[in-house]
Amino acid sequence: MKNWIKVATAAAVGVALSASAASAAWEKVVIATEGAYPPFNYVDKDGKLQGFDVDFAVKLCETAGIECEIVAQDWDGIIPGLLAKKYDAIIAQMSITEERKRSIDFTNYYSTTPAVFVGKEGMSVEAWKDGAVVEDALDGLVIGVQRSTTHSAFLEDNFPNAEIRMYDTQDNALLDLTAGRIDATLADSGVLVEWVKSDEGKGYAFVSDTFAPKEFFGEGAGIGIRKEDQDLKEILNKALAEMLANGSYQEINKKYFEEINLHPN
Amino acid sequence: MFEDLIYVLTKYDTWLWQGFLLTLQLLAVSVVFGTLIAIPLAVARVSKLVWVQALPFAFIYVFRGTPLIAQLFMMYYGCGQLIANIEGIQDHWSWTYLRDPYWYCLLTFVLNTAAYMAEIMRGGIQNVPNGEIEAARACGMRPATIYRRIIFPRMWQIIWPAYTNDVIFTLKATSLASTVTMMELTGAARKIVARTALPYEAFISAGVIYLIIVYVLTFGFKGIEKYLRRNENRKENKSVLAKAGGHI
Fold first, then answer.
1. Does A179 sit within 8 Å of B80, measured CB to CB?
2. CB-based contact A225:A212 (threshold 8 Å)
3. Count of alpha carbons within 13 angstroms of residue A192, beta-carbon side
4. Exposed, middle or buried by CB within 10 Å (0-12, 13-18, 19+), for B217?
5. Where is the signal peptide (chain A) (predicted)?
6. Nearest chain B Cα to A164, which residue?
7. Residues of B in contact with A180 (CB under 8 A)
């Protein structure tokens, strides 16, 4: 009996939701971002939301021809807020994971920070070439990496002959790189790009191309939407594809990350 | 849960095995060299001359008074950085060893263990009954002979339980080696967690291995304790003790 009531309620809610979604027709979309993850999204000193995610969201709406409002929302409450219809989409560098997919849906990925090797200027570490692992590329080298990351798993699984050192933090790996105790480190290029430019990173540089194979590093960040809003997903995916095709995506990419391609695949 | 445990133990057995070997190695070297360093430190520490006991006192004070992980980081990142900055060192043959975290780890553990053991030994030496030392002196033994024949054997008897305790302590201290990239048992367990998202199974596996090591250690040390106290258990000795009214 109780089960029947549950099913009936669920069906009723489902109908009501799809009805409201259809009637909205997406003339106006409210988008949430976190505002605390520079340079992707942050609040500037005038209290305005800025960053790659914000620029991307604005351009995306423009391309899709819909009116947008961008709001800031704390990370912890960002999915509940979406489900409570406080906003309709999340653009906040949210990685697409199976766990999140149980409660919300994602568009195609819109950005990923690829991995890169950093070492002494002039050396070359091509461990990933033409979409495949170069198994002997790290032979005889000592490579530092932060433990419990996708990067450490990638190194361990693919380079049996390399000596891999696991650090508790990326900062410690970089310390050892400058001390000469490791030859190179593999990490998120978004983190390393700042370090290479800093004083400590003098004499060190990217020594490989950036790479982000899905099978090792995951799908990247997608736009989070409610599961029932499949029509919005379609609109956003189409606009994203258009931005990638007409170069407006790359423009925003360059503005924030000159050296890194955020959409390599 | 049980299946996951089997999965962890069979799939990652090499990681656990290598971690186990490294843990044993760190423990053995720390205890052996720690003890060797501790003995002269303890002897100097009981000296009546201030300038003799000042240095060991400072050493023991510093190593017992600061967290082991801070010492490890000081040694590995601090001293390591200084050594790395020496002109030309990175092209020298010794660099192969100087860049390796293993030696920094060992040195820290050895010094730390030495500090604790020296303090235990100091207590042991000071608790050797004065009458025995006086008796030895009356027999005409020289200080070195007194140490060798009276004080050290008695000291070992007295400190053995505390010493055993310290060895077990050192075993657990080795788990910090993974913070400077040495993948001992705890490091191996952490790696397995990162891979499998099975924290219980991984740490239970490591925990059980630690328990086995401790079991074997306690068993062995109990045996040595019996040997050290062999004289106390002899009947004739007891009767001698009784005749002397217990005042030996």
1. yes
2. no
3. 28
4. middle
5. 1-24
6. B181
7. 84, 90, 95, 99
Q: Would you say A167 and A144 are in contact if contact means Cβ atoms under 8 Å apart?
A: yes
Q: Which residues of A touch B80 (CB under 8 A)?
A: 176, 179, 181
Rounded-to-integer distance, Cα A220 and Cα A260, Å? 14
Task: Decide if A168 touches B, using CB distance below 8 A.
Answer: yes
B115-B118-B120 Cα angle (round to 5): 110
Which pLDDT band holds residue A205 (cuts at 50, 70, 90)? Answer: very high
Report pTM.
0.72
Element (H, E) at A105: strand A105-111
Is A180's CB within 8 Å of B90's CB? yes
A124 Cβ contact list (under 8 Å, min separation 6): A207, A208
CA-closest candidate to residue A63, choices A245, A243, A210: A243
Q: How confident is the model at residue A9 (pLDDT cuts 50, 70, 90)?
A: low
pLDDT, one tens digit per residue, over B175-224 is 999 999 999 999 999 888 877 778 888 999 999 999 999 999 999 999 99
Residues whose CB is less than 8 angstroms from the CB of residue A161 and which lie 6 or more positions away in sequence, other chains included: A135, A136, A138, A139, A140
DSSP for A126-145? --EETTEE-TTTTTT-EEEE
Closest alpha carbon within chain B to A180: B84
What is the model's pLDDT at position B244? Answer: 53
Residue B232 has pLDDT above 80, yes or no: no
What does the pLDDT look like over B139-181, one tens digit per residue? 999 999 999 999 999 999 999 999 999 999 999 999 999 999 9
- List of domains in chain A: 26-112+219-256 (3.40.190.10), 115-216 (3.40.190.10)
Q: Quick one: pLDDT at residue B239?
A: 55
Contact B194 A153 (CB under 8 A): yes
Q: Is the pLDDT of residue A229 over 60?
A: yes
Q: Domains (ranges, CATH) in chain B?
A: 2-243 (1.10.3720.10)
As given in the structure block, the two tokens for residue B136 are 């030895």
Residue of chain A whose Cα is closest to the Cα of B194: A148
Please state, in angstroms and rounded to a whole number, the distance separating the CA atoms of residues A77 and A73. 7
